[in-house]
Every structure is written in C-alpha cells, then in structure tokens.
Specification:
Blueprint (H helix, E strand, L loop, with lengths): L1 H8 L6 H21 L3 H21 L4 H29 L6 H26 L2 E8 L2 E9 L14 E4 L1 H7 L8 E6 L5 E16 L2 E12 L12 E3 L5
Helix pairs in contact: 1-4, 2-3, 3-4, 4-5
Length: about 240
C-alpha cells in the first residue's frame, strides 16, 4: 500500500508488478528477521535502514538519480509509519471494531485520502504565478491564479479580462482618472451582472524562467470580499498561458 501510494503521488509510473514483488519480498525478509534476530535494536536497524531501502530500490529502481531515490525512500518511509500508526491506533482505540483488517483498510483509506488532498494542493499551487501590473508610473506585484474556467471577454474590445481583487484594485487603480467601463458577465451558479473593467499598460506573468508580457491588458475589479480570503489576488484569463 505504501509503495503504490508513493508511485501514485510522485507520478513515478512504475509498473505495479515490480512494486508488489518488491513489497512482497521485503515483507517475507522482514518476517524472517523477526523470527531470527532477538536483539530489538539490531532488528530495528536492519528493518528501517536496509530492508526498507532495498524495497524502495527494487521497486522504483535508480531512474532519476540520487534525488529521486531519496524522495522515493522518504515518502515510502513516511507512508509506512503513517499506515502503521493509524492501524495501531484504530485497533487499540476500538474506533474500528472487529480487529486488525478493518483498521488496516480504514488506515489505507486515510492514507490515500491524504495523498489525494496533497496532490490537489500541489496542482493548485502549480497554477499560482507572480504577476506584475504596470500603468503609467505605477507598478503592483501580486499573485495570480491561472483559471481555465475564466473565459470572460470584453465584448467591446475583444480582450481577455483578468479579475483583480477589490483591495488590490483600490491600492493600484485611480478611478478618478482611469477609464472604467462596464462589461456584462455570467458566472457559474450566479445571475448575470456587470463587471467594472479598465486597461493597464502591461501585465507580466512570471512563468518559471521566462515572463509572459501582455500589453494593454484588461483588468476587471472584483466585488469586495470575493478574492480577499484567497491565496492569490488575481484570477488570470485562461488564454494568457
């Protein structure tokens, strides 16, 4: 369960027959060590540092070099500890009745639920970029979230609309001199409305080692409270990346 979970989480694409064979061999050797080695300290050292390391090496190989191997080893070790700890706690606490097997199944569900959550968070984080807005002599640095669902276009100019939080808009824009226009929109589950939109001289998205520069970009001003609790300050249009 641990090695297949790590294979899924780290996207190693190893065939499951190799992982199952490695885990089965490690389990058999672990049983032999348990029966033969009477010294608890020696047993722990052999199991944690040699047996588990051999299982990771046999299951995942050396593809990706030392760094990938260390990631595989650390993730597998943590998964084994989490599975064992959850199973033991559920068994001893009596929260899961009928013994070891139901507790192990519940621990497995807990582990995979955690991995799915972490994968979702990692995928979400991969869509957040450093963004710069420039207008006249003004400049604002924020975080933007690339949202494939943002398809809003300005029907008057044909430009894609990126949506800026209300707080950052007040900080950056000057509504007394920046020309504001109303753009109709429809959001999922919401009724139609009008979004205040203006143009900036340049929108720069820092995408890794290179920047995406968009001249005369359209920026919509979100309603108060819509983006303030978020981890980002702007919703980027789907077409910008």
């Amino acid at each position: 369960i641990a090695v297949t979970g790590v294979n899924f989480f780290l996207r190693r694409r190893r065939k499951y027959r190799y992982l199952i064979a490695a885990a089965g061999a490690a389990s058999l050797l672990g049983l032999i060590l348990l029966l033969l080695v009477k010294n608890v300290l020696i047993y722990a050292l052999l199991t944690h540092f040699f047996l588990n390391t051999g299982m990771v090496l046999a299951g995942f190989g050396i593809i990706g070099g030392k760094r990938a191997f260390l990631e595989n080893w650390a993730a597998t070790y943590l998964a084994v500890i989490l599975l064992g700890g959850l199973t033991g706690w559920l068994t001893e606490s009596g929260l899961i009745p009928n013994g070891f097997l139901p507790a192990a199944l519940a621990a497995t569900a807990g582990l995979y639920g955690l991995l799915l959550y972490l994968m979702r968070r990692r995928s979400f984080g991969n869509h957040i970029y450093a963004v710069q807005l420039k207008k006249d002599t003004r400049q604002l640095e924020i975080k933007g979230y690339w949202d494939s669902g943002n398809q809003l276009k300005d029907p008057y100019t044909g430009q894609s609309v990126n949506i800026l939080s209300h707080t950052k808009a007040k900080e950056f824009l000057d509504e007394t001199k920046d020309k504001i226009r109303l753009v109709p929109y429809r959001s999922l589950g919401e009724r139609e409305g009008l979004l205040r939109v203006t143009d900036v001289d340049e929108l720069v998205i820092c995408d890794g080692k290179h920047n995406v520069q968009i001249a005369h970009a359209s920026v919509g001003i979100a309603d108060p409270g819509l983006l303030e609790p978020k981890e980002y300050d702007m919703i980027l249009h789907a077409s910008v990346l």
